[in-house]
Amino acid sequence: MDTLTSASPSAAVVRRLTALLPPGRVLAGPAQLAAYESDGLTAFQATPLAVVVPETADDVIAVVRFCHAEKLPFVARGSGTSLSGGSTPIAGGIVITLNRLNRILRLDPAERVAVVEPGVINLAVTAAAQPYGLHYAPDPSSQSICTIGGNVAFNAGGAHCLKYGMTSNHVLGVKAVLATGEVVEFGGPSREQTGPDWTGLFVGNEGLFGIALEVTLQLLPRAEMFHTVLAGYRTLEQAGDAVAAVVASGLLPGAIEIMDALALQAASAAVHADYPPGCEAVLIVELEGPREVVAADRVRLDAILAASKPVEVRPARDAAERLAIWKGRKSAFSAVGRLSPDFIVQDGVVPRRRLGEALRKISAWSKEMNVRCANVFHAGDGNLHPLILYDGREAGALERAEALAGRILRLCIEMGGSITGEHGVGMEKREYLPEMFSPDEIDCLKRLRAAFDPLGIANPGKMFPVAGAPALAQHGLHPLEQAGVISRE
Length: 489
Fold this sequence. Notes:
Layout lengths: L10 H9 L6 E2 L2 H5 L9 E2 L4 E3 L4 H14 L3 E4 L16 E4 L6 E5 L4 E4 L5 H8 L4 E2 L12 H7 L6 H4 L6 E8 L4 E5 L10 H5 L7 E9 L1 E2 L3 E9 L2 H13 L6 E6 H11 L9 E9 L1 H17 L4 E4 L3 H12 L1 H4 L6 E4 L2 E2 L5 H14 L4 E6 L4 E8 L6 H18 L18 H4 L2 H14 L26 H4 L4 E2 L1
Parallel strand pairs: 3-5, 4-5
Antiparallel strand pairs: 1-3, 2-21, 6-7, 7-11, 8-12, 9-10, 9-11, 13-15, 13-16, 14-15, 14-19, 17-20, 18-20, 19-20
């Protein structure tokens, strides 16, 4: 593996940084830095100057102010599960890892809010709220390891975002340190706010504004009853048609998910998930709510599914079977590692009415380009997650995978959708931003970013394209490779 590196690290900068914190909080050895060279998008990597491990909000503030004074680039990082390269480090800059800021500072069941630090694991919020009959709704597939800070940065969604919305719908307030070192507080424990929605603006900023120190989350009552159904279909198109029928009926399930044959194969191998034999796709539909409402909706759902001509329909008979269904679905991303040494998890959105058309084109392109592609997606809101498989040891394999990923993103734009549903733009998709937004719109976004970070030191190189630089799918060097900031496997 060839790695592009910056010039020799400045020992003086590291010494001054080390003096800010108690002993052992600054990591600068080669073996220590290796663990932070990439995030979930492993095709790109860089070696930072140092990794800082703060344990308090004051530590984070001190480090950010140091970076501002030194004009030193920094990247905030949680569990490193970003799939768009959003927390890939910058050579010559530092990584601020937030995993030790993992305290739930306040949980008020009466107000139904939780105030948490950015390193709190997503699922830990629900675990703390469960004794009060509450839960935290956003549930990305990585919810057992991803952090709230990362969720806020990329506006994470999850299987149940069809009914409950994204992270932005559940964050009431944020205390943050901006890239200038200024500490700000946006929003609060109530939705009754006046003036600009600074909290909504901060959520999804991909780390370009600064670092969240405390996040106030909305908690919701846990549903009284769940009804989860797994239906198998002979074709992916049939499963897509079933989704359209469910949505057109007026039902609002908690989740509607589809997995194709390749994703089913991976999940079966990884977690021994049991699916109907001979199916090219399975549909997961989950109803939730008051017992009487679910009972009535179940009758309607059963009739809709029966009319969609499935191979088999399997309602979960108890909580264990429901969890087994979801375990198979949530393992899909990591499970494809059993089928391929490398893969790209793409993330785009198309209108629901064009879901079948999009899937047909992706399947045809996959065969045409000789690149295997497993499809897993939040069917209810048209959020595609094609898993593009390749072997990085083969010459040209990564380029073919990226070319397919690029065609899929352009298809999403052409259909009136988006290049991202919940993974963010990051580094991977930044060259497609001009195809989705006009120059004036991008200029507005840049000026907004500069208002929070005039020096451009917070997570630089992400989201915005470099003028004249080739897109990933065009087989050229990535602009950050040209600058010697990252390397490609």
